[in-house]
Amino acid sequence: MKWPLLVLGGVALLGLGLILGHFGIPKEAASPVVQGQDQDLDLKILDSVIRQLEASRIRENLRELAREPHLATTPRDEALVQLLLQRWRDPESGLDAAEAPTYEVLLSFPSQEQPNRVTVVNASSGDVLFTCRQSEENLTGEQAGPDVVPPYAAYAPPGTPQGPLVYANHGSKEDFEELQARGIQLNGTIALTRYGGVGRVNKAINAAKHGVIGVLVYTDPADINDGQSLPSETFPNSWGLPPSGVERGSYHEYFGDPLTPYLPATHSSFRLDPASATGFPPVPTQPIGFEDAKVLLCNLQGQIAPNAWKGALGCEYRLGSGFRSDGEFGASSQVNVSVHNRLELRNSSNVLGIIRGAVEPDRYVLYGNHRDSWVHGAVDPSSGTAVLLELSRVLGTLLKKGTWRPRRSIVFASWGAEEFGLIGSTEFTEEFSSKLQERTVAYINVDIAVFANASLRVQGTPPVQSVVFSSTKQIPAPGPGGLSVYDNWIRYFNRSSSVYGLVPSLGTLGAGSDYAPFLHFLGISSMDIAYTYDRSKTSARIYPTYHTAFDTFDYVEKFLDPDFSSHRAVAQTAGSVLLRLSDSLFLPLNVSDYSETLRTFLQAAQQNLGALLEQQGISLGPLVSAVEKFEKAAEVLNQDIATLQKGSPHPLQVRMLNDQLMLLERTFLNPRAFPEERYYSHVLWAPRTGSVTTFPGLANAFSRANSTAPGSAPWAEVQRQLSIVVMALEGAAATLRPVADL
Amino acid sequence: MKWPLLVLGGVALLGLGLILGHFGIPKEAASPVVQGQDQDLDLKILDSVIRQLEASRIRENLRELAREPHLATTPRDEALVQLLLQRWRDPESGLDAAEAPTYEVLLSFPSQEQPNRVTVVNASSGDVLFTCRQSEENLTGEQAGPDVVPPYAAYAPPGTPQGPLVYANHGSKEDFEELQARGIQLNGTIALTRYGGVGRVNKAINAAKHGVIGVLVYTDPADINDGQSLPSETFPNSWGLPPSGVERGSYHEYFGDPLTPYLPATHSSFRLDPASATGFPPVPTQPIGFEDAKVLLCNLQGQIAPNAWKGALGCEYRLGSGFRSDGEFGASSQVNVSVHNRLELRNSSNVLGIIRGAVEPDRYVLYGNHRDSWVHGAVDPSSGTAVLLELSRVLGTLLKKGTWRPRRSIVFASWGAEEFGLIGSTEFTEEFSSKLQERTVAYINVDIAVFANASLRVQGTPPVQSVVFSSTKQIPAPGPGGLSVYDNWIRYFNRSSSVYGLVPSLGTLGAGSDYAPFLHFLGISSMDIAYTYDRSKTSARIYPTYHTAFDTFDYVEKFLDPDFSSHRAVAQTAGSVLLRLSDSLFLPLNVSDYSETLRTFLQAAQQNLGALLEQQGISLGPLVSAVEKFEKAAEVLNQDIATLQKGSPHPLQVRMLNDQLMLLERTFLNPRAFPEERYYSHVLWAPRTGSVTTFPGLANAFSRANSTAPGSAPWAEVQRQLSIVVMALEGAAATLRPVADL
């Protein structure tokens, strides 16, 4: 039985009313809205949101957020929880609902009674010849408060090792091997290392394997200050790190609460015995400033360090071990590292706020940042929270006025205890893994909103590229020139795309902020948005006061973004991305953009590993075929969407296609691919060793197998990893193909 | 802005036309249909389908399917692939599309050149004193064909062990411990075991741990024939197993292709070296008939077996080891087990056919059965395939006539190589895991359709109970009395439900057929439907000719279901369930029925483990709270559905609720819960040791911990398992709660 087309046409016009009407009073929405199921993104609303985001309000948010240190779970951190709840529950500009659930998580703090101490000691007499600073210099009146946590390496074990000092560069595996190759006795030494090169905890792990009994970590002025190191050249006189500044940080190897891997850290949850928990530094470790590092390093005896190991302390870099006899301390002096950190179970809060979707309340666009800082944390993370609050204010105001409600639900999150290892966000993903995997469209992270004021910088998975591009093309970049954020961005970070030509270059997502559990554990398309450096002007590892007591409001206002225009640009970009994801009829996730990534990974594998694999009888043929199937399926899907967009697709048709788009990223998840890599299940973005930018499982297995005999178990693992990625790509293609294809 | 209700009402009426019209010509459907997005299950269509299912056609299907042996991957198995394709591609009664993809899987076959042989040998002279049959007796002319595979234990390793015989009952752990306790030397012996008690492979695993070098397995007439054992009392004179009948079977410990765990066995897939694959019997193993078993067992010397070990062979059951000196063989005679099985990579086909959904083509109702048999396999599996073909014929005919198209897609499957360990279905779930998890509403399995003709028997997870009940209440039971299938069923299998009072009792799903990978690996609500015994009339382990050369068409027609009315009742039941799942507006999955199961599991844990756990400082409090949350959420969801059903819910509202219903089962999946149990990820239905019917992870961990010291690692694992199930239940409750709740 066929319906005459004429009837169809007539009824179709009338049906629109029904649809709009029906959704005018959505069951789950707190207030009536005008959007209907066929409503696409309203460009006027989008424009209005972008215009209403105010730099001055971001500034005032930041001033309040960074007024006091707010280390995770401290009273000020909890006060900010209340501030967020109050904002999100505001009758004029709040959200539909807000809550602050807590988790009981294992944190690590220095002892107040027994401060950590690094000293130079005469080994025979025990006399203390020199003591490193125990806190940063009070340069602006903000470094001496009772809530400024002294510098420490969170999760480093307590202990008071003492031994001759060696200099070990970054503390990488290769660095310690170099020292050993040079005949330097490492057993029983204290290693002085500098930040950079490898992760914090890895310095201690690598060190301990060579018998090192304590580790110091400092920030070299070469790495953070473009070589400047004098008080006159550093904060408060410039953006540079003062000589006494010390980078704090988590030294835990994994993210998430250390005692509850894969379980939410609820009060009643099973917890590992801390003694059997893994991933803590094996030896006492303490960070120090370069002022103190200079005293230690510049008095070392022994061989001169390789050139690549030299920084800007202004002396010869010698390797040790031990001090030179003609220096400040004498050859028999040793370094004592006294660490008295304590592990404590603490209640850490997340704050969650929701704007319920009018049409598809069961589709979530998540937007989050952490709340906790090491000290005042003006940049990290309060710049992001200041943006978050301004964005939620503008959207909340539209919501409360009744002029707007998103198609999909928007969930804002302020995560706790990120600085200790993304703990609040990870526990959240563990508690709600099913629901989040079923329903989350994307996760937007804005942690440090502004590292510097030169250019946008976005990290993300390929499907978010298109929505970020669309958004940034319509937002004016701060500063003169009248460029869009996009056009400014492309000047700083670009690549030649085989599909689009020259485009801004998106970075990839590691585990540097709260997006990690969403992407790696749950397979949710994610992104991290910020404004950042002009790399022609600085080679600093990161903004210089990172994780120090000098990361203050004044610092931001004087040196990073005086008019807060970069903050505003980030708010506008993130806001536009958020609104497009929540309100567009078809999800603005371009799955085809994965094709380019896969093709790049494939070509890298072919060029760098292909011949060597062939020697082992391993063919990349199935991988080639899988990539081709993916490309084809993505292309056809995009054509189908384009065709539908020209007509008036039915809401269920839209929903079905959107499900394909939303769930694509999930198809790359395989919890059995790398069981030893806690939480890393995404077969495309898991950590990769080696220099070849390709499928991580394949690359890692290859590098382990490469020196083994043909037919060895590591070569079998290469084949297994190849099959795992082929299966993932074939599964992804199957998800993109027409849904009723066999 | 509010829409006046009057306008709403008026437009709503008009909108219906649009909706019907729009879906009158669905994009993906092969032919126009009349169903629309608001269309609920059409009871007239349902009734018509039920009526059109013909017993005589099922009979003719079975005659054809069981005409020849069709062991997996043999020419006749492939011929049946073609038969299925032809039926499903029939222009008058076929489906929208059908395909037959293949996997390359590891099977095990006996050698044709060197038949497996069990002999009694004079240990000194080597003279063969007795040889067991190498094939079953040709009683009906069908047991001697070239395609009848001789009895063997698939995956048992080759070898020719020889030693004194012992009788080991079921070959359980306890059985061998009993023999050991009685001072019977097991080292170097051949163990004769009987089917039942433990899984096939476990007999050999348990035996080898005690030094046993070869295993025989037979079917005792007490267990299969209600004690009858004479030729005159058995087939072809009754349904009983003839003395020469031998149960074949897979002796692999895991399901799925042995060489490709967690990977689809595509041609290019990574394969384990067979030597490093696990789960095969550790020693040569061979099944024999009770005719031969009697000769062996009744000549044993030694102690008399415990009463519970005695069967119906008509002699004393002695334990051995070795033969009695006054018997047929003499005390120095030994048993030689010569096994020459070979592992072979073979191409095995699945056949898949689809009816594309008119409204939600991306929602799949799967209906499957395996195709391969051990010999003719009239009962196992052809009775199910005969039903499958009749059901697909009736639906295909409605489809091709254009009178019906389901709301959701229906996928029919004929799995290959199930007899070797659910291989075809498992590889399918591996290849399409993402897509199937995202989209599958339920999996219906009808393997053996008719074990016997007394009553329906359904195994399934709780959400399918309601749709099975609704279906069976409307279908007349075969035989006199005018009862419905439901009313007949409740007479044979019932339980007292705390919610419903006396209801038929659904069984739970283990891993006995192809539902296993869908339920345990993918978390899809599943069921298995059959007609079965009157347990007051037989205590047979299973129908007597199971996996023998006597499972023929004649056997079915003479002894199981002469008028095929039980087959028809199964077709009607499964067809009704299928149609309700594919066509109902709201999915007929009652998530609330999980509440009763959870409560039962909880109470069992409290009563049996609670006090003992408390002694270890482990509280069930969080589990109580999680169950309560689940109950509450399920109840509220059901109320919401009931309210919506009274009105005219919008298609997207329906879809959102259905997603909650569909995905509930998925929330119980945790691939990290029992990593050592291959494929088992469902925290409620994983294998459970011990007698307490409760959460399997908790029960298993408890039984391992129970004899260890407080604070041991096994007790920590009990706590971890408790947290895993609490997390799953909390996650399930979160999935059922209103979707925009925080």
What does this entry look like structurally?
The structure is a homodimer of 742-residue chains. Chain A has 22 helices and 21 strands. Chain A is α/β, with parallel strands linked by helices and 742 residues long. Chain A has a 7-stranded mixed β-sheet, sandwiched between helices. In chain A, helix 9 (378-401) crosses helix 16 (565-583), helix 12 (465-473) crosses helix 16 and helix 17 runs antiparallel to helix 19. The longest helix of chain A is centred in the C-terminal third of the chain and has 26 residues, at 621-646. The radius of gyration of chain A is 27 Å and the shape is globular. In chain A, 60% of the residues are buried. Mean pLDDT of chain A is 94; it is low at 1-35. The interface between A and B is large, with 92 and 92 residues.
Give the SSE layout.
The structure is a homodimer of 742-residue chains.
Chain A: H1 5-24, H2 43-52, H3 55-65, H4 75-88, E1 97-99, E2 102-109, E3 117-122, E4 128-131, E5 153-154, E6 162-163, E7 165-167, H5 173-181, E8 190-194, H6 200-209, E9 214-218, H7 221-224, E10 249-250, E11 285-288, H8 290-297, E12 333-338, E13 342-349, E14 351-355, E15 360-370, H9 378-401, E16 408-415, H10 423-431, H11 433-439, E17 440-445, E18 455-460, H12 465-473, H13 485-492, E19 494-497, E20 501-504, H14 515-521, E21 526-532, H15 553-560, H16 565-583, H17 593-608, H18 610-615, H19 621-646, H20 651-664, H21 696-705, H22 713-736
Helix pairs in contact in A: 2-16, 3-9, 9-16, 12-16, 17-19, 19-22, 21-22
